[in-house]
Specification:
339 residues; alpha/beta; 4-stranded mixed β-sheet; two-stranded antiparallel ribbon; 15 helices; 47% helix; Homeodomain-like_sf; RNaseH_sf; Tc1-like transposase DDE domain-containing protein
C-alpha cells in the first residue's frame, strides 16, 4: 500500500477494530477495498500496519557512472542534463533520462540556478580596483554622504540569458566557476535612463532617447541636472564611471570650467557603485508589474513610476555600504565581490 500514508493506515485499523465495514473504511480513507483487506491481513500476521519492505526501483546507473556525471558537471557548470543523458548508457537502455542526471547531481549537492553575470577583469583592472579600495577604505560615512553617485543604464524588454542555468553546490554561488562573464546582454528593444543619488538627495530619472555621446551627456544631463545640484552643494564631488561619454575632453573641460570636482573611479568597477543595486531593484519591480510592458514607451513610463516608489531609506543604506564594498574588494585582491 505505498499510496496510503502511515496515519491513514492507523486510522483505517482503528475503524476496522471499531466494527466498521471494509467498504466504508475504504471510502473513508479514499482507497480500494482490496487495500483495506490487505491491511487487515498484514496486521493479523505481523501485528504491524507498516508496508512490507521492498528493494525499490533498480538503479539505472553504476557508481562509476555517477562519479563520471558528477565530474562532467563540475568541469563544465553550464553543461545541460540532456547533453549528459544522451552520451551516458544505462544498464537496461541505450541511454538514461535527463531526470536521472538531475537526480544524481542533486545527490551530490548540485542544483541548477541562474549564473551571476559579471564583467571580465584583467590583471590591470584588479590592480587598479585594489589601489582604489586601499585609498578610500578609511573614508567615513560622513565622507561618503558628500558624494553624488551617478550612472546610466539600458533596460531591455527581453533578456537573452534567461534560459542559461549552471550547476552549483552550497556556498558556490559567487565563485569563479559559477560566474558568467559578459560585457553586454539583452535585446528586444531598450530604453536608457540616468539617475543621481546622494545620502539625502536624489535626482529625477532622466529618459535618454537613443544613445548617449559626450555632447548629449553635457547638454542633457550635466547642464540641466548635475551642475545646478552641485552648485547648491559646493563640497560634494561627482562620481561617474569611465564611459567614453564621461571621459571625453569636452565633458572634462565643461566640469573644470564650472569648478566641479570629480571622484577618481577605476575601470570595470560596477560592484562599487551603489546605483547598480538600484538598477536591479528597478528591473525587478518593472518585471513584476501586473500588466507586462508591451513597448519601449511603456517601459520608460514604468521606470519613472517605480523610481518614485523607492524609499529614501533604501537609497541611504546603499550609500552607507561603501566602506563594506571597499573591504570586500580588498579581501578578493581586486577581484569580483558579492555586491
Amino acid at each position: 500500500m505505498p499510496r496510503v500514508p502511515a496515519h491513514l493506515r492507523e486510522l483505517a485499523l482503528g475503524m476496522l477494530q471499531g466494527g466498521m465495514r471494509t467498504a466504508d473504511v475504504a471510502r473513508a480513507i479514499n482507497c480500494n477495498v482490496r487495500t483495506v483487506r490487505r491491511l487487515r491481513q498484514r496486521y493479523r500476521e505481523t501485528g504491524r500496519t507498516a508496508d512490507r519492505p521492498r528493494s525499490g526501483r533498480p538503479r539505472v546507473t553504476t557508481p562509476s557512472q555517477d562519479r563520471y556525471i558528477r565530474t562532467l558537471h563540475l568541469r563544465d557548470r553550464s553543461r545541460m542534463a540532456t547533453t549528459t543523458a544522451r552520451v551516458t548508457p544505462g544498464r537496461h537502455n541505450p541511454s538514461i533520462s535527463a531526470q536521472t542526471v538531475s537526480n544524481r547531481l542533486r545527490e551530490a549537492g548540485m542544483r541548477a540556478c541562474r549564473p551571476v553575470v559579471r564583467q571580465v577583469l584583467t590583471r590591470h583592472h584588479r590592480q587598479q580596483r585594489r589601489l582604489w579600495a586601499q585609498t578610500h577604505r578609511r573614508w567615513t560615512r560622513q565622507d561618503w554622504q558628500k558624494v553624488l553617485f551617478t550612472d546610466e543604464s539600458r533596460f531591455c524588454l527581453t533578456r537573452s540569458d534567461g534560459r542559461i542555468r549552471i550547476y552549483c553546490r552550497r556556498n558556490e554561488r559567487y565563485t569563479e566557476a559559477c560566474t558568467l562573464e559578459r560585457d553586454r546582454f539583452g535585446g528586444g528593444g531598450s530604453v536608457m535612463v540616468w539617475v543621481g543619488v546622494a545620502q539625502h538627495h536624489r535626482s529625477e530619472l532622466v529618459v535618454i532617447a537613443g544613445n548617449l555621446n559626450a555632447v548629449r551627456y553635457r547638454e542633457d544631463i550635466l547642464l540641466p541636472h548635475v551642475v545646478p545640484f552641485l552648485q547648491a552643494h559646493p563640497d560634494m564631488p561627482l562620481q561617474d564611471d569611465n564611459a567614453t561619454s564621461h571621459t571625453a575632453s569636452v565633458v572634462r573641460d565643461f566640469l573644470h570650467d564650472r569648478n566641479v570636482s570629480v571622484l577618481p573611479w577605476p575601470a570595470k568597477n560596477p560592484d562599487l557603485n551603489p546605483i547598480e543595486h538600484i538598477w536591479d531593484l528597478l528591473d525587478r519591480c518593472v518585471r513584476d508589474r501586473a500588466i507586462p510592458t508591451r513597448n519601449v514607451r511603456e517601459r520608460a513610463g514604468d521606470l519613472v513610476e517605480e523610481w518614485g516608489n523607492i524609499s529614501e531609506h533604501e537609497l541611504a543604506n546603499l550609500v552607507q555600504s561603501m566602506r563594506r564594498r571597499c573591504t570586500a574588494v580588498l579581501n578578493t585582491a581586486g577581484g569580483h565581490t558579492r555586491y
